Amino acid sequence: MTKANLNNGRAKPDKPAFIIAAALAVVAIVVFWKTATMGGAASYSRVGPTAFPYAISAGLLILAVWTAFEAWRGDFPKREPQEMAPILWIVGGLAAQMLLLNITGFSIATGILFAATARGFGRGPLWQTIPMGIALAFVLWLVFAKGLQLSLPAGPLEHLF
């Protein structure tokens, strides 16, 4: 049998979709394994703390099989080419926030994330979006840290208040 016969004359298998299916399967297996080896799970009830992780791993495994099946059939729509610059701006903003959170505090680190994400979406210059992001993040910090008494990292700006 040729590949065309196995595939019923349809489009060739979608290799990136197979990678996604494999990643889903790996995540499902890891969730299942970590749940199975989790200590201290209560055994007094049928539905305990392990019920939902098992359900999630089963759902992920079903999605992995379904994705692999659709990839084999070549039924995924044609994808547009990816632009890497916006992705790099957003991932860079997330990395900057994680690195700066304990140094500069919530408002400044999250303001930089806001500006990088806005830049990734093609909005405004950084000199405009960084102050806007810091102002919005500071308002959020006030609501959560002062209003709701939640603990968020404070930096020089937050220490003024």
TrEMBL record:
InterPro entries: DUF1468 (IPR009936). Keywords: Membrane, Transmembrane, Transmembrane helix. The keyword Transmembrane helix applies. It comes from the Bacteria. Coiled coil: none annotated. Residues 19-153 form the DUF1468 domain. Signal peptide: none annotated. It holds the Pfam family TctB. The chain crosses the membrane at residues 16-35, 47-69, 89-114, 126-144. This is Putative tricarboxylic transport membrane protein.
